[in-house]
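Q: My labmate handed me this sequence with no annotations at all. I'd like to see what the chain might look like in three dimensions before we decide whether it's worth expressing. Could you predict it?
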Amino acid sequence: MFEFKKFSINQENCAMKICTDACIFGGYINVSQSKSILDIGTGTGLLSLMIAQRTEKTLQKPNITAVEIEKDAFLTAKQNFENSIYTDRLTIFNQSIQDFSENHFSTFDHIISNPPFFLHQSKTKNNSKNLALHSEALSFDDLLKSIDKLLSKNGKCDILLPAFEMDIFIKKAKKYSLFPQKKLIIYTRKEKEIFRVIIRFEKKNTQNKEIIENNFIIYKSKGEKDIELNRGYTEQFIELLRDFYIIF
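A: Here is what I predict for the chain of 248 residues:
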């Protein structure tokens, strides 16, 4: 059981456990104007619960819909939702996003996803983990087709991927008239290679404009003062996740 300040995550039966980049994603994305949110591939339900907490004091609390194809992850997320104080705003479906998009006729003004990203690596013997990690279960094209159908005209879509896969995703997204608006580049430490990238996509053509770009660093570099305080996390990280992590 992973304890946050206002909710708990049971992840025992989920192939993909809670990870730092997902927590950053949930704390970072701007959902202040969102009335309906779709979480594609929810896994443990972490992102949906983080967003529910972040919007608990807003005048119009958004309804959050989660979709998860893997049965054990679906059951786990459903339990996590039901055990939270946000259960009345959370709905989950045990479907592929392809099937969901075919049968869901309303649109969302915000879509979020940390999609499978292993494009070529060999699979494991764990079928649940393969579904969570390998893009054969959900190709970027299939994901984009679903986003194109489910995103409202003025909607926003946030995607979390490694840098190489994000470059591929950006190129494919143009075919669906989805263009980057804002980029967050995540580093484990400032001297390291890029760890993950978060990009906000909208149906606004920015091909000839510079998108807003910011850097985010998780850990202080070795040798920096007080590195042992707060387990060596940067102030940037602490401030982002102060409302969630018990250690802060």
